[in-house]
Amino acid sequence: MNTNFSEKLKNHYTEYGFGRNSFTSNAENACVKCKSLGVTNIHQGADTYIGSKYGQPYNVVVVCLDPGKDPKNLEERQAQIEGQDINNLNPHMNGTLATLKALLRPEGIMDEDLFSHFAMVNACKCFPADGTMKKAPKEFFVNCREHIWGELEILKPDVIITQGSEAIDALANFMRKEAGEKATFFKPLINDLQVELPEYFTCDYLDHLVDKYFRLLEIKDKKLVALCPPHPSDQGGRWHLFAASYLGMATEILRRTLSNIV
Questions:
Q1: Global pTM?
Q2: Where do the domains of the chain lie?
Q3: CATH code given to domain 3-261
Q4: Which of 85, 133, 212, 255 has its C-alpha lying 20 to 30 A from 29's C-alpha?
């Protein structure tokens, strides 16, 4: 366990009462909006996942959706994710692995070690315990946003990868919105990139890639970039299209932003 970050997160969960082992009456009172939806049986609290080698070589944070089932504390979650068989993953974690491969493999990190080099934060900390495995209601994500902000400030990400629209929405507090700033930031990073395009691309590939899938953020006076692809579990084919057409170039741009920022 990366003890520096984990201890800060444990203290944060205790102070604000929304961690897996510290879900207090104060947190329940703060979450009354979720209970007002008529959901009476709720799995409460999901701690961040921190890989044992988080920060090597960068602070890579994935912001995903709700925990889905069986929320775990910091230690349990690390054991669960780092103990996975990378040859037998669900679509969500398979897509996460593919993104980490594209980003970190050039750093010499072996595939079986990739999960130990990142952190994962849930945009929603609770979910209905109805056994359906459906995504939590949108109101859950809205009510949880203030919780993720504190976690990200502790994790000090160098780059963020979102999974799903609710994960993007959770970053709204950190979005840079000055007109033209995003284009100015990315232009020198993509000017010399050479792209061999399939015939079906009729748009400006690099400008489209940056405009659609990247966000410029600032967390505690630190400027950073978020890559915002479709969720890996998307059943409409959008993730597979992104992975085939954009993932390699998107992670090359990410590496360039890291050398420019870190």
A1: 0.91
A2: 3-261
A3: 3.40.470
A4: 133
